[in-house]
Design a protein that fits this description.
single chain; alpha+beta; Lipovitellin-phosvitin complex, beta-sheet shell regions
Length: 308
């Protein structure tokens, strides 16, 4: 049995290596349409010395990508329409908050107000064959429409809700989110075992820089499996997050690992499974008060799936 297992492994290895090097990049066609679902689960622990807080958060977002046109250089104009959202937040300081766009209930939790306002909205983005986000010019007009129709109840901090919405769905937020999905391709042909590196910035709730090392580990007739190993370092001089008079600064670093599956016909990342570990410090300041500091650890699981 052992001899058979070894022989099978050698055959599979030889089959993978028999593929010639491939070009990985977007090769979209007008009229193509894809349904995309992204799920992010986070466990957040904050240690204030005398008190420890643990928060669990789940966000599920679904959208449709439609290729409207493709230029001669391969740059695709893609329309994104937000279709559904689910949000769960649990913690000792606020209990459990939950929102599901398919069953929203009578009261939408403040952290989900922006998600609800985005439903049905459509934006156009230009994406180059190498995954670079060429333009998000349409996003700012979308954001103004969403802000205009946003209804914030008196019990919520309107300025905080709008600032959070702009961070996540504004031009920079959309660009960073899409770069994490599309900016994964090498500069030239790669064979099984080859590696390449891409760097990205994240300026959301936990700002950091990512140095992502990709390795092509398997080639099939219709897809490529890519291993991801990332070094996450603090994003220096990032702007603090303001909420009324309070400002919050976050400095974190850590690691990321996982796998991607790329469809060879379209170049799309059709499956992503990643885990992140972040650790660092949070500093909260208010005028006339001593700063409050806390150690923070964030464990995250990120999954993306693309279908018809």
């Amino acid at each position: 049995m052992r001899t058979l297992a070894i022989a099978t492994a050698l055959m599979l290895s030889a089959a993978c290596k028999s593929h010639p090097p491939v070009e990985l990049g977007l090769t979209l066609l007008p009229g193509q349409s894809f349904g995309v679902v992204m799920v992010v689960e986070q466990e957040i622990e904050q240690d204030f010395g005398e008190a420890q807080l643990q928060t669990n958060q789940l966000t599920r977002t679904a959208w449709r990508q439609e290729v409207e046109s493709v230029r001669p250089d391969g740059t695709a104009v893609v329309a994104f329409t937000y279709e559904s959202a689910r949000f769960v937040l649990e913690g000792p300081q606020f209990g459990r908050m939950e929102y599901d766009s398919e069953n929203p209930g009578d009261v939408v939790p403040a952290p989900a107000l922006g998600m609800e306002a985005m439903l049905g909205e459509r934006m156009r983005v230009e994406i180059a064959p190498n995954g670079e986000i060429v333009s998000t010019a349409d996003v700012e007009a979308l954001m103004e429409r969403v802000i205009a129709k946003l209804v914030v109840p008196p019990t919520a901090d309107a300025a905080r809700v709008k600032a959070s919405l702009r961070r996540r769905f504004g031009g920079n937020g959309v660009r960073e989110m899409l770069q994490s999905v599309f900016a994964v391709y090498p500069d030239g042909p790669v064979a099984v075992g080859d590696t390449w590196t891409r760097k990205t910035r994240v300026t959301g709730a936990y700002p950091h820089e990512q140095e992502n090392v990709y390795e092509l580990v398997r080639l099939d007739d219709d897809s490529a499996k890519i291993r991801v190993r990332s070094r996450l370092t603090p994003l220096r001089n990032s702007a603090p997050i303001a909420s009324g008079p309070m400002k919050t600064e976050v400095e974190v670093g850590g690691s990321q690992r996982g796998f991607l599956r790329v469809d060879l016909e379209t170049g799309m990342v059709v499956v992503a499974e990643l885990t992140q570990e972040l650790r660092g410090e949070v500093r909260m300041t208010m005028p006339g008060a001593e700063p409050v500091r806390a150690e923070i650890e964030v464990s995250a699981k990120i999954e993306l799936a693309v279908g018809d």
